[in-house]
Please model this.
Amino acid sequence: MDIFFKKWAGEGNHWLLLIGLGIYFIGTFFWAISLRTEYLSRAVSIFTIVNLIVIAFVGVLYFKENLSVINQIGIGLGILSVILMEI
Model:
């Protein structure tokens, strides 16, 4: 979803904004459904961390952005935190 927002910001194509909003809505819908089976604190934490990790990887792979050492350590700690929450 954030990919479409980033492209919309650069290109100004309103379809990209609408697609991004649609994907955001679908993701939020499934996240809300997951709250039926998970604790709120756990679901929110995992959803947020996974979202940040995916966006960072898309930024690096698709938009050719660079990650500093601090950013890489943060991503590693985010992955570790999701693993620890799932144990």
